[in-house]
Amino acid sequence: MNLVRPARQADAPALAAIELLTAPEFATFLLEGLFEGQSVGATLAAIYAREGVDSFEWSWIAEMDGETVGAMGAYPVSLVKPSTDTGEASKRLAYYDPIRKAMPADAFHIGRIGVLEPYRRQGIARALIDEAHTIAGKHGEQRITLFVWEDNQAARAFYQTLGFVERDRITLPPHPRATRHGTMILLEKPLTLRVIT
Known about the structure:
The chain is α+β, with helices and mostly antiparallel strands. It has a single domain, classed as 3-Layer(aba) Sandwich (Aminopeptidase). Helix content is 34%, strand content 27%. Strands 1-2-3-4-5-7-6 form a seven-stranded mixed beta sheet, sandwiched between helices. The mean pLDDT is 89.
């Protein structure tokens, strides 16, 4: 049985683990070696345990038979505030400025979504995106957005079946810290208003 539920603070380690198992490039770039003696996973779990947009508060967990098998982080773009970090953290964040600038202010943005390998192709990602659609509608956003790597044909095809279309493209240049670079596509799905009579 599948269940999608809002994440709780106690889910922070699971949120970090799923991100590191399904799409580690961003967290690794931003957090590796940032705090001496602390792993990327421990730092990421601490971030998810606190309050804010990049936290458990704007995350959802997918469970199957009581096991956490997927997770999603999504939020209204209007809630994103400029970073107050300084030093090395701000330098690392600056690399991703093109991503932030491409996000429309009236969007509900899926910043991360991942399903563990043995549980893929079982409707879990679709259930998480359906949840994002429901939450976005409650917040009054005009569209749902997400980024996908240009070379990820399977993901692009999947999102297309859900009604996402290309809105923009950005290119992340090579960087000594980046495990992945290249073109990312911003996909969007307009939200339709449902009139109840």
